[in-house]
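Convert to structure. Protein one:
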Amino acid sequence: MASSPVLPPNRHVPFKKGGWGAALLTVLGAVATFLTAFYIHTKTYRHPTDLMMRTYPHADASHGASAGTHGGTPTGHSTAPAATPAPAH
């Protein structure tokens, strides 16, 4: 059976400082990563109901399409009336 060593009653055990620098560097790196992600999030996030999110399909004024459409419809197909078939005799 293993037992812990018993120290004499008045023996001084020195404090070991090893590892605190690496721990501090790790914590600072995690905080910096969190702050960077939060900054990017605040600059780029758009709520799903935000009107700026309605950009697809892209409207281009130089092509003469109305806002939010390509060629007159959201799918890009023209809205020309279908040809009517000739009446059968």
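Protein two, convert as well:
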Amino acid sequence: MHVAMLRLLRLGLTRQMRVALVLVAATISLSSFAAGFFVARLGTAGEVDDACAMIRQESTRFMAEARGLDPETAQHRIKARTSLYHVINNPECFSAEDLATAQAALDELNHPRPADAGR
């Protein structure tokens, strides 16, 4: 930075001209940074939406496979838990209602209520 200032002094620029040049350079730098930041955020938003779409699709697929199995089998429980963990571990891709429902279903899978003995 000092070398640049010395070069400006050799050019015979006044103090006001040097300040103006520094301000212009700072403005250009900040504008470039801000533009890069916003472009990167726009690109990331699309990637997150694509990733969320894939996660939701996988969760739906696992739950559909679980529903096709006998609920008493380990394979059913594994598929159902996998689907629910997809929801719980990706809160940015699901609504609060989806997260709460998944947590409640997972709690039920992990700690099933005893069957009614009187039936």
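The mean pLDDT is 80. The chain has one domain: 18-110.
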